[in-house]
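Interim report, section 4.2 (structural modelling).
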Amino acid sequence: MNMFEKNLAVIASKDPALAAALRESRGGAFNIIPARNGQPTATVAGRSLHSAYDPRREAEAWATAQAAVCRPGEVLIVLGVGLLYHVEALRARISRGTTIGVIVPDLNELHDVCMVRELDSWMNDVEWLWSSIERMASSLVAIGSPLRFLTYAPAAALHALVHANLERKIRQQVSAQAGGQIHVAVVGPIYGGSLPIAKYAAAALERLGHRVTWIDHSIHQASYDVMACLKDVRHRLTLQSRLADLLGQLTLARIAEDPPDVVLALAQAPMTLPLLEHMRKKNFVTAMWFVENYRHLTYWQQVAAGYDHWFVIQKKPCEDALRYAGAKQVSYLPMAADPSIHCPLSLTPDDQTALSADVSFVGAGYANRRGLLPRLLTNEWAFKLWGNEWDGVTSLTGVLQRGGARIDTDTCVKVFNGTKVNINLHSWTGEGLDPDGDCVNPRTFELAACGAFQIADDRTLLPEVFTKEQILTFSRPDDLALLVRHWLRDEIGRRQMADAARQRVLAEHTYDHRMRQFLTQMGVSQPDRVGAILQGERRAATLMGRSDAAPELVPVLAQFGSQERVELKDVALRIRKRGVSAMLSREDLLILMLDEYRMETRDLL
Amino acid sequence: MTKQVLIINITRMGDLVQTIPLLGRLMHEWPGVQIDLVVDKTFAAMAALLPGVRHVLAYDFQGLINESRVMGKDVVTLYREMSSWAKPLADAHYDRVINLTFNRRSGLLTAYIGASDIRGVTTAHDGASVLHNPWFNYFVDMHEHRRFNRFNLVDIYALGGSGPGPHTSLQLSRTKAAIEWAQQFLHIGKGNTTVIAVQIGASEAIKAWRPESFGRTMAAISRLTPVMFVLIGTPSESGAVHEAIAAYRNAAGRATLLDAVGKTDLPRLAAVLAQCRLLLTNDTGPMHVAVGVGTPVIDLSVGHVDFNETGPYGPGHWVVQPDLGCAPCGFDQVCPHHACKDRLVPQQMAELCLHVLGLGLFSTHVTGVRLYESAIDEDGLACYRLRAGHVDTVSKWYGTFWRTYWYETFTHSRSQMSIEEPAPDLTDQQHLFQKLTPVVGHLLTRTAEVARLSRRRPIPVERLQSTQAELALLRRQVLEMTMSSSAFGPITVALLRELGNGDAMELSAMAQEQARAYRIWAQRLRGVMDYLDTSQGLSAQGRARPLSERIPLLMP
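Predicted structure of the assembly:
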């Protein structure tokens, strides 16, 4: 019996259908070559899936790191097939009682593995998930335990889309089962710092299993920029204001097509007060996460009364100011980080050369930074300055990177990771340190999530989110260079603080945490709507059990899964799906009539 | 036994006022009839002013839209609230339900309530919307050939909801409290001057003349005669009203402006309008209210408004229609220019106002518009007589022809209207009919064949399908030939609606229904052609005769 047949026999003993399907598959997904140590390794389009030197050792390192984060009771799902060295190593490090599943998007890959590697019985201690995304998601959700996804990046990259779809499907199904799936329309700005935050918030809501309509206005930035070139200020402001009005109407048109439970706008989203008032009249629930310093950006005064709920990154004076301006409900919701974006990583040699430094600062040239950062110019360490709007600060020209161009998030993450001491100076338009410095900027969380060491200027709200053992702060400009000097010499101390800060982010300060807090708060302030949905009061079983449920509705509701969220449109859809040959009952007529009213949109625009 | 009728008229205030002649007609048809009226909550106060209504059954339909669209209420609550309101209506066992709200959702409500005699939109067994009553069918069809329609909605409501009968004018009741309020309100600064009401806003921007033009018109009037203006409207129209006031001041308007915008509920609005000598207005609900309290109206019929359908009802009112190829535009038109509004010249509008007030001569030297005066025609229906401007001969001739044709077809009675001239495009229509005749023959053969095959058991599927395919081809051919024809288009529109308006539950019955619709259509084609031919001969004799004497009544 050759290797392929032997392997198939092992698989067939547990999953005959998979064995049969593998026999039908053609293989040829990988280019198989020997590694230096003689073990087979694989490449696809020139990219290695495993080490070209010692695949097994590399897999063991990966599996050890993964096993460290796994918790008892979890089901582990491996993304990325490759030649399964990593799965074998993981299986060896995880107790037998823990289920490990491997997603197989392409059977030809598993076929290739069976051709070149002799697989032992461990293979039958693994669940092979190889059907449609829908079915894989359903079977994983049916397990009922917490799922932890472990990504073996070189192999997983071949099927990134499949994995993303699967994850989304699983989260949707989990939430649907829980009956608490919320539909949130996230409205982003045309440009600016809140744009990535809007994307992180949207991604977090999806990760939590909610449905998101992402209303992206950044695609209109080119038009906005063209207007910004107009020399006549009046023309520029008039046209930019009209564009903002138009985009507000576009937002309304989008939500008219698929009305959400909550509209969450991020700071600078183009939403005017008349638009918000119109939306309130039409019963839309709106919220604003104002991820800006309210003292610096003051347009909130014009729209304070428009949103049902404000979320801000500052406390007392800010909350009072908003309430005074007409905001009905104001809650504190600090910034956060997305660990899938801001994470530890190793720099390539080229990146090391270009991006690493002893000391770095990334950001725009606000007045306080222009005054403080020249103090870091010394021969004692290599200082790199990244970011834009540094014109006129001649002393910093020598350290300014890329001619003062804006740098993207990926580069930022690399700079953070490649720097021994990151300087984090909150923006301020005055000299020295902001005397009213309260809020904690996103950079603080992002540096921490990267596992990067930082020295930040003191903020009154910082102790609530990080301890002194996690983030180092300074409160006098003169102290900055002294601290840099000291901590550059203490590599272990830097690592300890950075690790502690990262653990704090993972435990408390991700966008997933923030969006959970956001929804909880919305649920409290809208108990009959958002709260009711989150608590599963729209589930079929709950609706059927209601004392005021008309008896004639019960058979219709019984057609849904008991944990499924059921709305008027769902019931109407079931009736319509019966087709033209079905006779409508009088109750059906009433439901369809209600649904016709639901679909009306002409009064919105 | 006392008859009970339910009228469903949900969406607009003006439509409610336009229902008044129907109420009168029903009382004439069934003396002692008990009439209930379903309206949106917003219009309950107005509905209370309609004469002869037993119960006004108001529901917050706009609130329902707002709640259901955003899932503000769960399905159980929405259902419970609606059924607790609607079930008593179903339990009332009305003798007739007249649905004057031409949309799918009201059709579902109508079907839920049910009655042996349903008129208007209702719902078939499978959920499709169906229309009952030829007048209400016509109401839907007429939008395909609007330039030939000469029936006012008020008459369609009365004829469809009841039938022919004595003319009833729009007459609204007024409450004592509202009259006193209006007298007090208008007394401020009134003296003995003439009061003109002005309605600047409209439910849709496309229906509203430019606010600036209103301002300039008022200014021109104020320079010619001592008047006082009372501005009416809802709070949402205040922006447009402020624009008009600014234009009025810029144009040196010198009369007193009394701002009633947002200050009147519907009974007070009626009382204020009753105190005015004229209302200058867009086509709006207040226009019909003014008619209902006997105040002359100048209706600025711009955008997609067609005064023939919704203009002021009864004699003594005036209509201004832009003379522009695209006017009136279609209901769902999104117009980028609103050029029709610039056809109305403020100075000329001011002069028309003075004429209507009896303070100036009528000038036929108007430009860019047509002026009509409203009247009652020979059959007792609303009509508009052209007083200035020009109408093309085809629209004019076929307007009268179709008005007469449909009246006789639907009422089975003779119209007193007469047509003096032969059809202006007679030769074209004769050629078309010659080409059409053999195709129609083939088509009728195929429809009969489909009906025959669908009765056979087992059904000869392949043969049936091939015959249906032939039928579809022929149908496409006749549609191309007839739809744009002024002589055959309107009856082909009726055919298309009829083909989609069936309530048959199985194939054979459906095929019979369709064959019957085609037969009626063919009879109508022949009948219209006969009349067109005859009109040529009659013209030679110098005398026209009622249509019904020439053409057999074609209603099945």
